[in-house]
Write a structure and sequence with these properties.
With 92 residues, the protein is mainly α. It contains four helices and two strands, in the order H-H-H-H-E-E. A hairpin with a 2-residue loop joins strand 1 and strand 2. Helix 1 crosses helix 3. It starts with 6 loop residues before the first helix and ends with a strand. This is TIGR03643 family protein. Pfam families: DUF2805. InterPro entries: CHP03643.
Length: 92
């Protein structure tokens, strides 16, 4: 059973899908959507031309798939950046 996504959730998923280094696995972990579900959401929520541009951008991109990445860790993070846990910013 899939939960109903709020507009805020949809906005965040679209933002994460556009980010080069955010994997589909991260979206699955936070929102429970598989890659195909993300593609379907993007198709439904975006203009056709924007969807085609996004699809061409992520097609075969190594950074969008955890198993294809050349690196496992090492993402830059500013020391002043707050911890993000399950898409919620933790208080300091």
């Amino acid at each position: 059973m899939k939960r109903e996504l709020t507009d805020i959730d949809k906005d965040r998923i679209i933002e994460m899908a556009w980010e080069d280094r955010t994997t589909f696995d991260a979206i699955l972990l936070q929102f429970g959507l598989k890659e195909q579900d993300v593609i379907d959401l993007m198709r439904a929520e975006m203009k056709p031309s924007s969807f085609r541009m996004w699809r061409a951008r992520v097609q075969g991109r190594k950074t969008k798939h955890e198993k294809l990445r050349d690196f496992r860790e090492g993402r830059f993070k500013c020391s002043r950046q707050r911890q993000i846990n399950n898409n919620k910013i933790a208080k300091r």
